[in-house]
């Protein structure tokens, strides 16, 4: 067996191909709602967080963005009226990004097509056992390589 036949390379190659293919299938759903994939990811994370808000640093970690990258993202989403920045008296050092009612409404508009596409091209192609195993495995890997994102799935 040569180094190029290593199953680790096969696993990474399949992961990259699956990711690229899924993004291509999912993109029309978020584009139709006037969002980028990054926009949708951020709005989904905010919608699933307590109070529909996250500290900017937590949002950066969960979206794999730098501090300046998350600032630009939140600036863009704020200009669109989908999020707002907030400070809280008990945590003066932190700024929070909070989902607005318009942001929640935009998610409601995008979500049906997005979920249908996820079902058609991803989760619906797996048995319950396969999906459970995949989720378990992805969490193990995510927790190891990106521990800052663990707070909210």
TrEMBL record:
SUPFAM superfamilies (alphabetical): Winged helix' DNA-binding domain
PROSITE patterns: HTH_MARR_2
A Pfam family it matches: MarR_2
Domain HTH marR-type positions: 5-143
InterPro entries in alphabetical order: HTH_MarR-typ, MarR/SlyA-like, WH-like_DNA-bd_sf, WH_DNA-bd_sf
Descriptive protein name: HTH marR-type domain-containing protein
Classification lineage: Bacteria, Bacillati, Actinomycetota, Actinomycetes, Streptosporangiales
């Amino acid at each position: 067996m040569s180094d190029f036949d290593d199953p680790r390379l096969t696993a990474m190659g399949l992961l990259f191909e699956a990711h690229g293919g899924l993004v291509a299938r999912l993109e029309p759903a978020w584009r139709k709602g006037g969002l980028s994939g990054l926009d949708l990811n951020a709005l989904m994370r905010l919608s699933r967080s307590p109070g529909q808000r996250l500290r900017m640093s937590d949002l950066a970690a969960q979206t794999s963005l730098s501090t300046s990258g998350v600032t630009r993202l939140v600036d863009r989403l704020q200009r669109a009226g989908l999020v707002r920045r907030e400070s809280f008296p008990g945590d003066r050092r932190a700024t929070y990004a909070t989902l607005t009612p318009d942001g929640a409404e935009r998610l409601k508009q995008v979500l049906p097509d997005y979920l249908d596409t996820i079902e058609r091209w991803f989760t619906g192609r797996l048995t319950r056992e396969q999906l459970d195993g995949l989720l378990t495995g992805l969490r193990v890997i995510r927790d190891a390589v990106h521990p800052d994102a663990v707070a909210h799935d």
